Amino acid sequence: MEAADAGVAGKIATLAATVKTYRAELAFDFRHEFGVPLSDIGEGIPWPEAIDLIDELGNHPGSHYWSSLNGMASPTTYGEIASILHATRMINLYRPDGAEPVQLPSPFPERGSPEADVTPEERDELVEYARATAPFSLDD
Q1: How far apart are the first and last CA of the chain?
Q2: From CA 21, how far away is CA 39, in angstroms rounded?
C-alpha cells in the first residue's frame, strides 16, 4: 500500500468541511462537470483527486461552487458578467437626463443596508487602535 502524503490528512478535513458547507453546489457540479456523484469521493474518486477537483471548481467561472464562493446570486461566467455590466452601462448612457436608470437582472447579490455597522464613536476607537498598532504610518 502506498504511503499517504503527510499533507493529505489535513486537506481531507478541509475537504469534509467544504463539502458540508457547499454540498448542494458541489453535488450539482460533480454531476454536471465530471459526470460522477459527489458520493463517489473516497471510493470512485481518491481523496487527493477530490481535493484537486474541488480546488479547480473554485477557479471555474460558471460552476455553482465558484459562484457561491464569489457571492453571486446565480452561476455566472465572466463573459456573462461583462455582458450584463456593459449592457447596463450602454443602456443608461443614452437615457434622457433625469430618467431612472435601468437595472438589468444581475448575478450579484442584493446590497445590504447602506447604514454603517458601527457607531461613529466605535469607528473613532477602531481608527485609533489601527493607528496605534499598525506597523506603518496610516496618516494621510
Answers
A1: 61
A2: 15
